[in-house]
Amino acid sequence: MSPQRRLAILRIAFWAAALFAFVMAILPHPPEVPGAPSDKVQHIAAFLTLAALASFAYPTTSPVYLGTGLSLFGAFIELVQYVPSLHRDSDPLDWIADTAATALMLIFLHWLRGKFSEAVSRKS
Q1: Where are the alpha helices (DSSP H) in the chain?
Q2: Which of 87, 94, 71 shows the shortest CA–CA distance to 27?
Q3: SS3 state at 124
Q4: pLDDT attached to residue 119
Q5: Containing domain of residue 115, as a range?
Q6: CA distances from 104 to 4, 89, 114 (A)
Q7: How many domains does the chain divide into?
Q8: Would you say the C-alpha torsion 7, 11, 12, 16 has a positive or negative sign?
């Protein structure tokens, strides 16, 4: 598979996951998640996934830029949840969980890429 095709697939996966996360966040009665994890666990899982997908889909984009964009996306979700007709609860702690999960994943992947490139350069 060509690198361009791989990036296209990863970008489609990222945007599909972002759309899915947004829809689930604004549904008045979202479906039950197996195991009934808490709201914070669901936020953390969603933003760990989004951060990983974003990092692979946009590998040349700064992790700071990706993190800022995902943090703003989390804040936007919380603002939309203030709409009374959605019957959702907006919680600033959800946005903090989103931002922390994003930061942790992006930092981890940045570190991992550094370790991988060190190992490759040592072999050369």
Answers
A1: 3-26, 39-57, 63-80, 92-123
A2: 87
A3: coil
A4: 66
A5: 3-123
A6: 27, 25, 15
A7: 1
A8: positive
